[in-house]
TrEMBL record:
Region (Disordered): 449-484
Name of the protein in its database record: Phage portal protein, putative, A118 family
Domain of life: Bacteria
Protein keywords: Coiled coil
Positions in coiled-coil regions: 78-105
Keyword flag Coiled coil: yes
Amino acid sequence: MWTETSSGSLIEQALRRPDVTTARMQAAIKDWLGLYYRTDTDPDVKEDPCQRMAYTVVNKLHKTVFGEYNAKILDAAKTAAGQRMQDQLNEIDRAKRRAMQAMLSGGDAYIKPILRGPNQPLGISVVRRDCYTVLARDDQGNDTAVGMLEITRQNGKVYTLVEERSIAGDGRLTIRNRLYCADQAGQLGSPTPLATLPRYEKLPEEYTYREIMGLGMVKLHSPADNCVDGSPDGAAIYAPAAGLIHRIDHNEWLLGREFDHGQSRIIASEDMLTRDKRGRNRMADDIFVAVDDEAKNVGVTIFSPALREASFLARKNEYLRNIETLIGFKRGILSEVEAVERTATEITSSEGDYNLTIQDLQQAWAEMLRELLTVCDAIDREYKRAGAGQRWDPDSLVIDWGDGVLYNRDRTWAEYQQMVASGMLRPEIALGWYFGLPTDSESDLKKIRKKYMPKMEQLGEDEPDPPPLPHQEGEEPPGAPPAE
């Protein structure tokens, strides 16, 4: 488990390289993750996170993105290489929600393949944005050097593994590992051999890969604009609304105080309070409130102030609407929209805006997934793992996002059928779209005819040449030689 780099100076101290992330960005990342993970009221800042707004935004979005998601590797020949990549894809799928949550809450997250047994797919680790330090970038803003640290406590000592990944000019990845030992956490300590801990005894101090694989891990980058400093760093999906979320938490804290201070009480004169020998009240302080003993105040008065009361769910829905406005989401992606009559044009426009919002997140995942499978394939070939041989074809990955997010599948299929019936579209192309099959070449279309259109395939083979076109009397038939 890669450790949070809130003490990022440890990496800079060990590698003697500065973090290229600006101070403003580091503070923003810490704030975003604080909004996402905190659960307790902070009396110092007077905020109550009971509404869990950041978590609600992330939870709604990642469930929507993967609501009907399905991915597979096309392997008609049932090859060992195809099965290997399908197993790897299944392993990635098990980590997809953690990865998406880490990206939405932190702006960026690295998806890191990890070597396991020879007959097992590579393991997948999600590295949060606060668990790595960017040490260098190229002129396109891509990370070219990254530092991470892993903490191990054993025999009263704190061991810190510092891992540096850097890309050389020829594009090859070099990984350097250094182990440090300290007496307490928060300190780097002194260097110690990797073999000090059994888990690191086979880890090389430095290794350069032959295969080109970038950093050996792939970044899942947020499509949200960086509204902090304009740097290549990704921004949390709720970054534009971070200030509003703080205001919401403060408002919840104020409401809680109102209910605490606004409970019904009995106001009594001083002589009505019973005290013990030490002069202390024998009744609970929150029941009786003492006032001076003027004659007009003697007696009992009921104090029951009016409270600002609003339904918890109603407040939450209104908060989500405000967050949608700041982030730029279509109304109803996060909040619940009241059912009102709308024209077909309004409904279509609403669906379009909704699709564009979710599509950005789905496209980010699809691009990352293809690159990650390519990196996993390169690692398999680097270590000559079982089934690794010919390079993996990224076009064999097929992703289906299901109905109701990017498109309405039933409606699109009906349109394709209508186009086929009108002679505007070949049926093979429509079937290829429906079953997720390639339709680029004539051989692809022939495979579809053979599998899904056997009668048409048979007609195409046995059908004789068509008769000549009819012609009127006095006209030459088509194809006839010209008259002399």
